[in-house]
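Quick one before lunch.
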Amino acid sequence: MTRAHQLKVAILISGRGSNMAAIARACAAGRVQATIARVIADRATAAGVVLARQLGLEAEVIEAREGAGRAAFEAALMRSLQDCGAELVILAGFMRILSADFVQHFAGRMLNIHPSLLPQYKGLNTHRRVLEAGEREHGTSVHFVTDELDGGPVICQARVAVLAGDSEQTLEARVLALEHRIYPYVVGLIATDRLELRGHTVVLDGRALTAPLFYPHDDELKQATA
Ligand code: NHR
Ligand code: GAR
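Model of the NHR complex:
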């Protein structure tokens, strides 16, 4: 570890929280040099809240109340992120679109994982749409969040073959297993100051990435996630 202190991260979830748990376990095991300052859910019913507490993490629910609108929600979210000292904000199955202002405040310090090979299949229900289109390949992408929805610079991708007989559930399960490997890996690269966003360019070890890191083709990525 090269930095004086561990990077403080906040993880935003809306549901199950399996990616949150994968990152938490990697930190707890010392494989990722980051501390999870807080888990924040935008839904009280998110199963990930219970899971986070079981993992010993501080978990908070910030709900957007009917009528109160996005501004009030984002103000509360911003306070919470500042309060816990978050240096990196990780969206992990977070289902609420954030305003351009909010995202800009965390430029280069906010990540998302999206279940498709971006720039293909932005938006929701990607597994279903991939099956309906008869694609032979699918996957997942970790990207920096910008105000272009699912359009920020891609850091890392993993692909899976679509198999004959796949359902949304079987396809999702294979994608999710890869997400649990690549997301902690990317957080680790940021925590050790190896990866950063400069303008719209992803820079790794001082060099611009000309294409996303690709699991399993990238050797270091393959070893780190083995
Ligand atoms: N915010 C910004 N500004 N930019 C991004 O790239 C973002 C973002 C917020 C969330 C995750 C994203 C995904 O990975 C994400 C990326 C939710 C929706 C959506 O339509 C779209 C994309 C993503 C997350 N949400 C509906 C809404 O009106 C609600 C859907 C629901 O509640 O089921 O916010 O895919
Ligand atoms: C993940 O597969 C993630 O890529 C996807 O939701 C799942 C969350 O699972 N994200 C989106 O679809 C964003 N729109 P998790 O809650 O178990 O981490």
